[in-house]
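Figure 6 in text form: structure in, sequence out.
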């Protein structure tokens, strides 16, 4: 009898853990589907008269514009498996835009100016950009691969 009760309690706890973990994964997938990256550009400013700088800018929109609470938390710039830059919310500027006709919500974002060029990025032609969004208690990652890294002279 005691063994049967312990087995039932153990099974119940395992089931609860499994359900809560799968619900969390499902919620992350739902949140991921709410965001579409519609524009993303990166460049190195190599103009004479000052130190060179790295720039990333883009735009994302919420597909469910009646209920969009996704905040851009951070951006990671990668080349292969190497993280070249980790930009936090303090390093980014994000402007909300609402289409007056459709109500569509979009956000224009860019990094603060003056981000110094490191040696590795100066030799890179394409980068991967990982956008980390926060919604409620969940973090959601959208990755855009092979973004051309242009140079402005």
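Output sequence:
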């Amino acid at each position: 009898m005691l063994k049967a009760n312990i087995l039932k309690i153990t099974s119940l706890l395992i089931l609860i853990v499994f359900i809560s973990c799968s619900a969390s994964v499902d919620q992350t997938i739902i949140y991921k589907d709410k965001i579409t990256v519609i524009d993303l550009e990166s460049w190195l400013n190599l103009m004479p008269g000052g130190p060179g700088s790295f720039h990333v800018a883009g735009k994302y929109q919420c597909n469910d514009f009646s209920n969009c609470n996704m905040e851009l938390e951070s951006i990671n710039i990668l080349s292969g498996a190497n993280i070249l830059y980790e930009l936090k919310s303090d390093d980014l500027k994000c402007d909300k835009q609402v289409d007056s006709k459709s109500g569509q919500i979009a956000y224009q974002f860019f990094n603060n100016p003056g981000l110094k060029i490191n040696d590795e990025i100066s030799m890179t032609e394409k980068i991967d950009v990982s956008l980390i969004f926060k919604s409620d208690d969940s973090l959601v990652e959208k990755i855009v691969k092979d973004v051309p890294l242009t140079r402005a002279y």
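Caption detail: Residues 35 and 62 are 5 Å apart (CA to CA).
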